[in-house]
Design goal:
This protein is α/β, with parallel strands linked by helices and about 200 residues long. Helices cover about 30% and strands about 25% of the residues. It has a seven-stranded mixed β-sheet with strand order 3-2-1-4-5-7-6, sandwiched between helices. One of its GO terms (molecular function) is S-adenosylmethionine-dependent methyltransferase activity.
């Protein structure tokens, strides 16, 4: 059920501007971690020539079939685990991760792998939900985190996405953060970060 829920919740139009920000500047061969049902395909810029994906769910991969068939560039599935990419060192131009860093069990390992396979100075785009800087919201995120993980396939509410990216050795080049529009009760799930980070030269 989780891939179907993610397809509906993470494929909503309100998230399209964040996907646009995350995909801006992608070019050449792109590795996308946590491809899901392919909601980002329509936001890839014209400079992209190939998309290689990592997606652990066969159900999500099947859900992406129509989007993949409509893609103007080839899309292939090369692995199941973001922390173990079957790609050579410094072999891809750019990377993308959207609404996946919250769920990947070894998130530090996945970011380290992204850094390893990117060419020196390569960039990653990201759009994620995570830990709010507002103390009252963060308290609820910590209270709800265990239940969230049990109900939604290991999804965390309390991961500080920009800090995780920087801890992996990337430099934040662009970052926008805001709450998804909606009632205050939705804020534990709706603090969003989107931007770009650069791998070391």
């Amino acid at each position: 059920m989780v891939p179907h829920i993610v397809d509906r919740t993470c494929g909503i139009e309100q998230l399209d501007p964040l996907r646009e920000k995350a995909c801006a500047g992608l070019h050449g061969q792109v590795v996308e971690i946590g491809f899901g049902s392919g909601s980002s395909i329509g936001h890839y810029p014209s400079g992209v020539t190939e998309i290689v994906t990592v997606e652990p769910s066969d159900v999500a991969w099947r859900l992406s079939a129509s989007r993949r068939s409509d893609s103007s560039v080839p899309v292939s599935r090369v692995g199941l685990d973001g922390a173990r990419l079957p790609l050579a060192d410094a072999s891809v131009d750019t990377g993308l991760v959207t609404f996946s860093l919250c769920t990947i069990p070894d998130v530090a390992g996945a970011l380290a792998e992204l850094r390893r396979v990117l060419r020196p100075g390569g960039t990653i785009g990201f759009a994620e939900h995570g830990l709010s800087p507002d103390a009252s919201v963060a308290r609820w995120q910590h209270r709800l985190d265990g239940l969230q993980q049990r109900l939604f396939g290991g999804c965390h509410l309390t991961r500080d996405i920009p800090r995780l990216i920087e801890s992996a050795g990337f430099t934040l080049d662009a970052l926008e953060q805001s709450y998804l529009p909606g009632p205050a009760l939705s804020r534990p799930w709706g603090y969003l970060s989107a931007g770009r980070a650069v791998a070391p030269e």
